Here is the input.
Amino acid sequence: MQTRPEIKRKIIHIDMDAFYASIEQRDNPDYRGKPIAVGGSPQGRGGVVATASYEARKFGIRSAMPSKKAVQLCPDVIFVRPRFDVYKSVSLHIREIFGRYTDLIEPLSLDEAYLDVSADKQNIGSAIEIARQIKKAINDELQLTASAGISVNKFVAKIASDLKKPDGLTFIGPSKIESFMESLPVEKFFGVGKVTAEKMRRMGLYTGADLKKLTESELTKHFGKAGKFYFKIVRGIDDREVQPNRETKSVGAEDTFPYDLTEVEEMQDALDRIARIVYDRLERHELSGRTITLKIKYHNFKIVTRSQSFTTSINDFDSIIIAAKKLLEATDLEEKRVRLLGISLSNFRDISARELPDQLRLEL
Ligand code: DCP
Ligand code: MG
Here is the structure.
């Protein structure tokens, strides 16, 4: 049963701590207590780090950082090859644990999910107690730690789970939400990526309290549809329901041209515009994908798609445009007239261990 938004809900957001790295440290005693980076390579051949152990984070190593930089920060860092099949099975196990308390589970990635426990299966009633039990089960059954955020809506629960990592449990009750939102830096607001944050800073907007001074129409004027959301969220209002089975499969954008493109330079310019839209959407949805796909429709309506998969997920503009241009170069562009180009990202952190890294695929 889905609870109606106007009824006070109990939402838990669970996020595993240093997910890939903790699993590798659990399964290999040699890695325990040491700085490890999952993904990437010591030679720094263009690879990026998927995640780092907490020991490695002390040196400043972070997700999506080039391996080369990681080695500079910590020469002793140990690079570990990711084992997606293991991460996937741990993920299924934690979802099974969540399922003991509620069926309203919305996974965001392998290591993260929202739970609506307003009417929990065991009639425990207290969301804090349920979160405690979930954390204990994860610890007992998987020897891993998770952090939990508890509140009356998704937005606040998600921010809360990040506040006391690792092994944290943070409850933000209804009476504390507004002051909490006011003190929150704008970067933390859902959908505020680097570009929007910079724009906000230029406008003198640094915290929720600053955003709150603007009217709904002012916010919409400057930030479009997102402005409407900021207006509500800064007042602690987030009616988004926990949606079980909702899994975003891909995020992309495409463009049909007013005339067929024949010059490679024109196609590259078009890709640049499309990549910016894709980047913007990924940021807005806080997604990063391991597979990029280029779609080309020729003047005769024949469609070709080409994909490349990476060992770690990407979500930055440079990686998207570089990969898209490479895929375009790899197609036969001689004498081709192109009507449409599209770029999409898929295989979000979540999915498929089956894909081989750097594999090039041609589908006709
Ligand atoms: N991941 C990835 N590429 C990224 C970010 C993350 O492949 N750019 C993978 C590795 C992470 C997992 O997704 O282990 C979960 O991502 P989180 O952002 O939750 O990061 P961690 O769980 O590693 O650390 P934290 O304790 O901060 O949640
Ligand atoms: Mg995590």
Notes: Confidence is low (pLDDT under 50) at residues 350-364. The longest strand covers residues 250-261. Residues 139 and 291 are 32 Å apart (CA to CA). Residues 177-233 form a domain with the DNA polymerase; domain 1 fold (CATH 1.10.150.20).
